[in-house]
Amino acid sequence: MHDEAEILGQFDIAVVGGGVMGCSTALPLARAGHKVALFERRGLGLEASGRNAGSLSPMIKKSELVAHAIEGYRMWMSSKDWLGVDIGSHTKPGLIVAYNQMEADALDRLVTDRCANGAQIELISGKKATEIEPQLSSGVTLAAYSEVDGQAESNRTGQVFNFALNQAGANVFGHCDVKHVVNNNGNYEIHTDRGIAYSNKIVLAGGAWLEGMTSWLGFSLPVQYKVNQMIVTERTPELVRTVLGVQNGLLTLKQAANGTIVIGGGWQGHGDLENGAWHVEPEAVVRNLQLARFVIPQIKDLRVVRTWLGLEAVLPDYLPAVGAVPDVDGAYVIGCCRGGWAIGPCLGSLLADFILGRNLRLPIFDPGRKINAEPFAAAGSASKGM
Ligand SMILES: Cc1cc2nc3c(=O)[nH]c(=O)nc-3n(C[C@H](O)[C@H](O)[C@H](O)COP(=O)(O)OP(=O)(O)OC[C@H]3O[C@@H](n4cnc5c(N)ncnc54)[C@H](O)[C@@H]3O)c2cc1C
Q1: Can you tell me the distance from the alpha carbon of 340 to that of 320, in angstroms, rounded to the nearest whole number?
Q2: Residue 365 carries which DSSP code?
Q3: Residue 161 contacts residue 83 (beta carbons within 8 Å)
Q4: Distance from the alpha carbon of residue 35 to the mean position of ligand 1, in angstroms
Q5: Atom of ligand 1 lying closest to residue 44 CA
Q6: CA–CA distance from 214 to each of 124, 306, 379 (Å)?
Q7: 213 neighbors 188 (Cβ within 8 angstroms)
Q8: Pocket of ligand 1, candidates 40, 61, 75, 173: which has the most ligand atoms within 8 Å of its Cβ, to mutate?
Q9: Class for domain 90-150+224-314, per CATH?
Q10: Whose CA is nearest to atom 15 of ligand 1?
Q11: What pLDDT score was predicted for residue 9?
Q12: Is the pLDDT of residue 146 over 50?
């Protein structure tokens, strides 16, 4: 004999996944008066949304996402206004440097393309870049500079959304693992390890775990993931003034408000969907530090205090999925946005508008579009390439 499953309630809209995407969608829906339930198997914002580098950087986003990234930037910069709590955002100029002609040509193309899509970026000489960022190593041939950049304390994502969702009257089910979902002609049964909930609509926002979620509804989204690795140094007096990147994409670097230097890059650690991101790749740490020291030589004097990892979901076309699940009434998907923490608040509010039947101020990204399912290199494993 087994116990009957506990009934967790009947809701208008259920959101599965409590990262930035799920929370940013749930919040405006709850504020619009809907009975919203959000299910998160850990705590809010403990996966990618709380482990990322907190860079806002609209200039490095894909051209289709520049407008969304600028809106996301503005939302994080004014988080107290719409969340009721400040996430700890700081405006800082963004700088991307090139060290050779090939990188300079690529930077030139990037700036032309992003500016055509509304970004505010200028190309500056290596000399000017060094005036802006005095500790830069010599040899910068060209740089892209943008005033519209900054960073925020993304490790507080769960905390700030928990506050806002509770204020908005949303039902947050933390430590509640959704095992599967059954579509009963538009009344969804959400089977969790704590019982069953019912909902008229469902939003799947599972980050790297999104493909498994869409399969509950018979839809296949070809989600891939990267195991991004981060490094943080001990505190130091002001050393880096900008949100700094290298054109080849293998380095992002900035100084946090507490004086530590936060270093990320193109090298990967180890992880999988079953165990999460679990194993730092030492070779990747060394290579990432070597490049950081090459760009800002004084970093060689600093001790590393911590490294960590997280799973970043992407689709093979590097565009997000935000919209309706094809051929399934009342079901929606949001996720797989590269650099998606910065853009998340914008995408979540767009999906909420879409669900509410409101006009959309920016395009969303049809999950049912034809997506080339070619796997990219190094998904889910350590990348050895530089
Ligand atoms: C190390 C690292 C650095 C990054 N740096 C940046 C950066 O500087 N700037 C930037 O903009 N972006 C950055 N990103 C990307 C960004 O973090 C992600 O794009 C974004 O956080 C994705 O949000 P999400 O809500 O889709 O996913 P997640 O935050 O992963 O949320 C998905 C949630 O779903 C939950 N879940 C999964 N399965 C279930 C289930 N069965 N039942 C209930 N809940 C479930 C998970 O527990 C998780 O909390 C970085 C990512 C990483 C990993």
Answers
A1: 8
A2: B
A3: yes
A4: 24
A5: 49
A6: 45, 35, 20
A7: no
A8: 40
A9: alpha beta
A10: 339
A11: 97
A12: yes
User: Which pLDDT band, with edges at 50, 70 and 90, does 374 fall under?
Assistant: low
List C-alpha distances in Å: 24 to 43, 45, 166, 283, 381: 15, 11, 13, 36, 29
Going 230 to 231 to 232 to 238, the CA torsion angle's sign is negative
Tokens of 53: 């580098």
Cα of 157 from ligand 1 centre, angstroms: 10
Ligand 1, CB cutoff 6 Å, lining residues: 16-22, 39-42, 46-49, 51-55, 177-178, 205-209, 228, 230, 264, 310-312, 335, 337, 339-342, 344
User: Which structure tokens are listed for 71?
Assistant: 């809106």
56-60, 188-192, 332-336: which has the minimum mean pLDDT?
Answer: 56-60
pLDDT of residue 182 exceeding 60, the answer is: yes
Give the three-class secondary structure for 268. Answer: strand
> Which atom in ligand 1 lies closest to the alpha carbon of residue 338?
19
Residue 302 structure tokens: 């600093």
Residue 292 carries which side chain, given as an amino acid letter?
Answer: A
Q: What is the CA radius of gyration of the chain?
A: 21
User: Which atom of ligand 1 is least distant from the CA of 228?
Assistant: 1
Q: How far is the CA of 123 from the centre of ligand 1 (A)?
A: 32
For position 378, what pLDDT does the model report? 45
Cα 4 to middle of ligand 1, angstroms: 33
Strands 94-98 and 243-246: parallel
Residue 376 has pLDDT above 80, yes or no: no
Phi-psi label, residue 118: left if phi above 0, alpha if psi -120 to 50, beta otherwise: left
Cα separation of 373 and 221, whole Å? 9
Tell me the mean pLDDT in the region 193-212. Answer: 98
Residue boundaries of the structural domains of the chain: 90-150+224-314
pLDDT at residue number 3: 61
The per-residue pLDDT of the chain, averaged, comes to 94
* Mean pLDDT of the 233-254 span: 96
Confidence label for 381 from pLDDT (cuts 50, 70 and 90): very low
Rounded CA-CA distance 37/14 in Å is 5
Output the pLDDT for position 176: 98
DSSP state at residue 124:
E
